[in-house]
Amino acid sequence: MRLLRSALLLTAACLPVAAVAQSAPAPAQVSVKPIAYTQRTLPNGLRVYAIRDTATPNVSVQVWYDVGSKDDPKGKSGFAHMFEHLMFKSTRNLVSEQMDRLTEDVGGYNNASTNDDYTNYYEVVPANHLQRLLFAEADRMASLVVEPKSFGSERDVVKEELRQRTLAQPYGKLFSIYYPELAYQVHPYARPGIGSLENLEAAGIDDVRAFHATYYRPDNAILVVSGNFDPAQLNGWVDRYFAGIRKPSTAIPRVTVTEPARTKAVTRTVYEPNTPLPAVLISYHLPPDRDADIPALMVLKAVLATGESSRLYETVVYRDQLAQSAEAFLDTKQATGNMVVYAILAGGKTVEAGEAALKREIARFRDAPVTAAELAEAKNEILTQSIQSRETAEGKASTLAAAVLVDGDPAAADTQLAAIARVTTADIQRVAWKYLADNQSATIRYLPIAAKPAAGVADPIAIAPTVKVADLKAPANIEIVTPALEGQRIKPPAPGKPVSPTIPHPVEVRLANGMRLVTVERHDLPIVTAYLVTSGGSASDPVNRAGVSSLAADLITKGTKTRSATQIARAIEGLGGSIGSDAASDGASVDVTVKSDQLAPAMAILADVAINPVFVPEELERARTQQIDAVTLSLKDPAQLAGLVADRAVFGASRYGAPSGGTPLSLKAITRSDITAAYARSFQPDQATLIMVGDVTPARAKVLAEAQFGEWSSTGGAAAAVMPIYPKPRVIVVDMPEAGQAGVIVARPAIPRSDARYYPLAVANTVLGGGFSSRLNQEIRIKRGLAYGAGSGLDVGKTQGTIAAKTQTKNPTAADVVTLIVAEMARMGSASVPAAELDTRKAVLIGNFGRGIETTGGIANIVGSYVQNGVPLDELQRFTGAVGAVDPAAVQSAAVALLDPKAASIVVVGDAKQFIAPLRKAYPSVEVIPEAALNLDTPALR
Asked: What local confidence, expressed as pLDDT, does residue 721 receive?
């Protein structure tokens, strides 16, 4: 599935704003300039784009190749994606995984993705490492080493990715396999990008070499560099490393197939295991992304499915309560794309009713124009999303690169957004008639296997025999690259002089009613995040009322004394913003993000939902039903269920052990008085902090805060601190026979955030499982190919904490993975971490922190966590130094006390018959709980 286009757009024009009454004139409407870039093409055909931004200490390097899943060779779907994995192995001059050494180990990161139309490789590093990344990208373009060991290992990893993302997750097959297979009859877009286990097994090492020689060449790639660099220096480095790469004389194969128009509706019904609720998906063909009709279709999609004031949410989810969720997305491409509309049905609802509702909403666009208010809101939402996509160097680079490879024009994003500003209601109705007629639809009804009639037969969905796929014709005389000998290997250049980041400096005041106000100024983009955080949270939920704080937080945006839920959604989304609310373990929150010219009316809405919720009974019932359905979905995901069981195992009867989102039983027991009590425990001004980050001064922030929150008064009933209770560790298996993969977690108690050992433990956790180069990922994925990824996480709160190592693997290897995790946890305490390894892991923490403070939302989240956990705000300035000061002795000491696996509980959720024998041999006391007998409402779990 391609990147969401609405999040990748740039602003070339000022869009209209829905009128909102307010007491004072709004600031001048924002105007965002297009991205400024330079462009040149090397003699070998490599196109180079540079976007300079000296305000960031980082740089993003991206290489996009004009080859994707549509180019997979015949009989080898999933090949382009598997090849993407191999690009992280060795080259003539780089050893395997050295790309991670050059990025993650210095505080950056790298990744890649395979789309139908392109494959992109992208890194973000401190700016002084730019030259090293250019050297590395050029080396893997010119001299990738393909050898049997890495090929076999990565093929196994891709198989685990397929199991994790497609076979284990509910609805994974619906989106990644069945949707494309039914959507196309001729074009190779029909083949799932993830491929199949059989096709992956069919690929051979000679195929890999031929694929690289055919498509990975300078005249089939673009290089985008965005961030803090010297332009002349950049040009010199690009010439040094890329200009000498040979341009092959052979032509690049291109897919020229045209998908015929669909003139007759098609419908298929399938029955699949691990499907907690029925679903329905409808797709409609769209023209290529560069087509002049796409802007109108983007606005149509926003009216249909963006936010809680969208038509799908208001009617299908909210009013009629037919669906647990109803969404849409544009999957636009170089050639024929799709608009996809889908619904996960609510409990007790039928796919027939869901399908009829979705088609009714599509028909509304054909039958009548959208309203002026809907048109303005949709345009404002797209504008806000485009501003957010430009907050980082990486976001700007991705926007430009997608425009080049998908649309053939680096200015396409600007052009497209300018066209969005000109879209009319008539345009939307016209494109609805042109592309979204009933006879143009392809519908998939996706049902639980238990719903299949005794004599029923599912409709087959497979790649049509008419799909045209070409064989890969290997170029002549392919060079087989071998690693250079140690003494002959060219090493990456040394890093340059570091660029110091600008650490935010919060300005804090306290209002007369006791509420704290924290402001962080950032005037580079016209956007503001306002984030209200409180104490309380799910740890204050009474026994047998798990989920009440989460439900209360959700309901505060569903009606106030003067606004209904629909009015709230329409008001905030009419400003181009979004509002969200949540309850974490130790607090609750509500936040809005808007363009800075709409901050005043947005703050009025934020204050209204925080201070004046009314918890109307029908809203409670609606929210309760939706949450029960959401919990039902999570209970069918092996990884999510393993996390819920692990919380119970670690915390037992403590309130921290109960599911924060509730269970079907606890949610059904919640009354309105429970909701109002939960709200009162959290939302009091003397335990609330308003954080405002972005294009706002402290003076204006205070004026707005006093105007909207100044009259808010405390009513008592604040939540008391909850102390954790840690029972003895357990080994638990939840037997889920339908699971396509096993979820594995090894979790144990840790420390609260205020503990002096926090930084040593944070570094120890990063050594163990933080990042691609961590010990867990090295042992489980890189060395053995047993999982798509493995890692660990440190979760600290005001009074408690946990550390959990986790992964997903095929069922037969679940016991092996448990053994590996336990061994690595024990090794952390038995031997000192080498200084060189420790430095790289500290760089990971510091780099993650640095990228977190690049966006308004990231800063707000960091400051909010400090507030909820009682951490002083000057921790922002202390963080880098505190991490850097951690030494090997402190890490080992923390690991001995807090990573010892003897104090950990082990949870495996999967098909028990495939792994229980070896697990029981290692842990004779293992408890096996059938999925149907699992009871998360009690510490006994049954």
From this structure: 74
Q: Specify the residue for token string 């009859």.
A: 185
Other Cβ atoms less than 10 A from the Cβ of 31: the count is 12
Task: Work out the average pLDDT over 532-549.
Answer: 94
Q: What is the band of 153 on the pLDDT scale with cuts at 50, 70, 90?
A: confident
CB-based contact 69:115 (threshold 8 Å)? yes
Q: 783-801: string of b/e by CB count within 10 Å (b at 16+)?
A: ebbbbbbbbbebebbbbbb
Q: Give this prediction's pTM.
A: 0.92
Residues 6 or more apart in contact with residue 310 via CB below 8 angstroms: 302, 303, 304
Do 39 and 47 touch, CB atoms closer than 8 A?
yes
13 has pLDDT over 70: no
What are 390-449's pLDDT values in tens digits? 899 999 999 999 999 999 999 999 899 899 999 999 999 999 999 999 999 999 999 999
User: What is the reported pLDDT for 8?
Assistant: 29
Q: Is 441 helix (H, G, I), strand (E, B) or coil?
A: strand
Q: Which residues pair with 223 in a beta bridge?
A: 48, 63
Using alpha carbons, select from 225, 120, 161, 766 the residue that is nearest to residue 110: 120
Measure the CA–CA gap between 112 and 81, rounded to whole angstroms: 10
Locate the DSSP E strands across 585-625: 587-595
Res. 718 pLDDT band, cuts 50 70 90: low
In terms of DSSP bridges, do strands 527-534 and 578-584 run parallel, antiparallel, or are they unpaired?
unpaired
Q: Check whether 10 has a pLDDT greater than 60.
A: no
d(CA 608, CA 683): 12
Q: What are the backbone angles phi and psi of residue 281, rounded to the nearest 5°?
A: -130, 135
Note the Cα 176 to chain centre separation in Å: 16
For the record, the structure tokens of 468 come out as 């045209």
SS (H, E, C) 626-690: HHHHHHHHHCCCHHHHHHHHHHHHHHCCCHHHCCCCCCHHHHHHCCHHHHHHHHHHHCCHHHEEE
- b/e map 554-593, b = 16+ CB within 10 Å: bbbbbbbeebebbebbbbbbbbbbbbebbbbbbbbbbbbb
Residue 928 makes CB contacts below 8 A (sequence gap 6+) with: 733, 735, 912, 916
